[in-house]
Design brief:
The protein is mainly alpha-helical and about 200 residues long. It is built from eight helices and two strands. A two-stranded antiparallel ribbon has the order 1-2. A hairpin with a 2-residue loop joins strand 1 and strand 2.
Length: about 200
């Protein structure tokens, strides 16, 4: 689709797990998240729970076999974008917003469970950054004709888009909910300068 996908080995578990549930799936995966992480990654237990880094090279062919028919890496450009510029912004998260989720995630990891709590923390963190992202985007648009904002979460992309629309910025939101034809129409319109 051209939609960015994560590239860390551990992040493919969710894709493989989901695809394995399809009744006609080939190369079904039967690993739990933790077993997958220990088998395919360099798993290290820390005081915060398990960390899964890199790829165990001895299992690379098995992972490739599991990925057959499920993952295609697109190498050609989908859209022409200007050179990316990184401008760091410091954002302090209110402790009360994430403290309970962090505590739940820590306790789950200590008990050997991975209840998707870290994903919830990442999502809450992303959503908490929406106001500063919108503010920064508006600053950029004062000095340039257009910009592209990337985020990992559908909900944060929709909140950013909604806030920009409220500020009268002609913007479009492209995420997994947008069908391919509409997405390509938006990309074409962006390249033609029809919206920011």
């Amino acid at each position: 689709t051209g939609t960015p996908i994560k590239n860390r080995v551990i992040e493919f578990w969710q894709l493989l797990h989901l695809c394995s549930k399809h009744p006609e799936a080939i190369n079904k995966m039967h690993f739990s998240y933790h077993a997958y992480g220990q088998y395919f990654s360099n798993a290290v237990k820390t005081e915060w729970g398990w960390m899964y880094r890199g790829l165990k090279r001895v299992h690379v062919n098995e992972l490739k076999e599991l990925m057959k028919g499920k993952y295609l890496r697109k190498k050609q450009d989908v859209v022409s974008l200007p050179k990316m510029v990184h401008i760091p912004k410091v954002h302090k998260i209110a402790k009360k917003d994430l403290a309970e989720k962090l505590k739940d995630a820590y306790e789950a990891a200590q008990g050997g469970r991975l209840d998707n709590n870290f994903s919830k923390i990442k999502l809450a963190n992303a959503v908490s950054k929406v106001p500063i992202t919108v503010e920064h985007t508006l600053e950029i648009l004062e000095n340039t004709s257009s910009c592209v904002v990337f985020t990992d979460h559908v909900s944060s992309s929709e909140k950013i888009w909604s806030a920009l629309m409220q500020k009268k910025v002609s913007a479009k939101c492209l995420n997994g909910k947008v069908d391919a034809d509409t997405r390509m129409g938006h990309v074409h319109a962006f390249n033609q300068g029809e919206f920011k």
